[in-house]
Amino acid sequence: MKLIVGLGNPGSQYKNTRHNLGFAVVDNFAIDQGLSWRYNRDWMCFYIKRENFVVIKPSTYMNKSGEAAKAVAKFFKIAAKDILIIHDELDLQFGKVRISFDSTSAGHKGVASVIESLGGFNFARLRIGLGHPSRKATDGEQTDPEKYVLENFTEEEQKNLTDVVKTCGNAVVSFLESGIDAAMNKFN
Asked: Which of 19, 87, 108, 132 is catalytic?
């Protein structure tokens, strides 16, 4: 059994923000697979359960995402090594996708919550590049990264977003069907 966790914030005000890229990927995955979301209050998440995997969207805010991941992993007895966390990444160029395993949070508070809740970082991550706002500034003004991730995508970013989300969905399928090593070889 594997667990796929899309990170994001609940609520319509966050739906199209950069920080909700994890939600966008698992929502698109659900549509592609013809699956429907259900809600479980005890697990604090929306979920999809299939024979060999569970996909979740925590209903906690980003900084407490680990609580939902831990609750679901514990219920289904899913080992950390069989968990894939999908999240936005400031330190990657927009649209770049990287799969990693056994790595630190690099400052991402949602990932830090998962590390704390699971008691380590022995899980896979599908990191989706946003590009750091300081590298994008053309007028010399710095944008606060915490503000940047809660902004909507630009028109230019939206043009490429469908392809990025589709690539991520393919990476999820690869992880489910072939495991982390095969997914890293194919998508990194």
From this structure: 19
Within a 10 A sphere around the Cβ of 59, how many other Cβ atoms? 19
Query: Which CATH homologous superfamily contains domain 2-187?
Result: Peptidyl-tRNA hydrolase (3.40.50.1470)
pLDDT tens track for 27-65: 999 999 999 999 999 999 999 999 999 999 999 999 999
Spatial separation of the C-alpha atoms in residues 68 and 168, rounded to whole Å: 22
> Kindly report the CA angle at 73 between 31 and 121, in degrees rounded to 5?
100
With 60 as the cut, is the pLDDT of residue 160 above it?
Answer: yes
| Known catalytic membership, residue 132 | no
Beta bridge partners of residue 39, listed in sequence order: 46
All structural domains of the chain with their residue ranges:
2-187
Q: Does the pLDDT value for residue 134 go beyond 80?
A: no
